[in-house]
Amino acid sequence: SGTSWGQGAISTAKWGGVKLSEVLKLAGLDDPIHAQETGGMEHIRFYSIDGMKASICIEKGLSPYGDCIVAYEMNGEPLPRDHGFPLRVIVPGYAAVRNVKWLSKIELSGTEADGAWQRGLNYKTLPPSVTDAKTVNLAEMPSMTEVSLFSGITQTEIVSSSSSPSNDDDDANATTTTAIDAKPGDVVRVKASGWAWAGGGRNVVRVDLTGDNGASWTTATLTEGKDQRFGRAWAWVFWECDDIAATVQPDGKVRLASKAVDMAFNVQPESSDHTWNVRGLGNNSWYRTEVTPPQTT
Q: Locate the Moybdenum cofactor oxidoreductase dimerisation domain: which residues (predicted)?
C-alpha cells in the first residue's frame, strides 16, 4: 500500500463462510452470463459499515475456482472484531483492500465502486514517469486487484566461518558454533527460513537465497504449503535453507536476500528501482535482512 510494512502486512488464516456465488444466487442471480450480457453487470460492489467501498470483477467473484466467500469464521472461531465481525469478504489472491471488512451490503453494478479505495489514488499504481499525482487522470488507470510475488526471511543462524577452527573433521556438526570468529571478507555459512507467496493463486515453485548480493544463489527447500492446488495456492508457503554462503561485509555484518519464483516464472526484481512509483505500491523487490555474527570472547 506504499506504507513501510517490512514483511508485516501478510499472514495466512483458515476462513469459514459461504460462497459469494451462493449468496448472489439466493439474491436472484441465477445466470451471471445473462446478467452481464443483458444488464451490463460487470462488477460486484462491497459496502462496509464504516463507509469503505470496494469492488471486484464479476468473473472473479462468481468463478467456481475463485473461492470468494462471505466469511464469518477465522481459524475456527467467530470473526474477531478487528478482522471484520460479523461478516467480511474474502477474495483470495487479491490485494487486501478488496477483502472488505464489516460487510453491510453487496450489489451488482455496471461500474466499479465509488470512493477513494476503488477509484481514488489509494490503490492506483502510477507509471514511473509520473512524479506528481495531481496531473494524473485516475479514471484511466485500473485499481490494484491481483498482487505480485513476495518472500521474507524470518529466522537466521550463522553456523560456521571460514576462519573458525574445526574441532573434529569427522564430526558432521563440527562447524556449528554458538560464537563465530568472522572478519570482513570471510565467508560464513548461514541457515535461514521464511515464507513466500504469490498473488492470483499462482503456486510458488522456488525460493533462492544469496549472501553476496546475487553473485551466487542457494535454492531453499519448500515445506508446508508447497502442495496447494494448482492455480489455487491462496496461502503462503514456508521454506528452509541450511547452507547459504555469505560474505562478511566491511562493517562486520552479513547481508542476506531472498527472491521467489512462481508457477508463471515471475521472479522478484532485485531492486525497488524496477517497481518504483510515486505511491510506493506493489514493491516486491528482493527481501533483504542483515545479521551480525556472534563473536567469541
A: 189-292
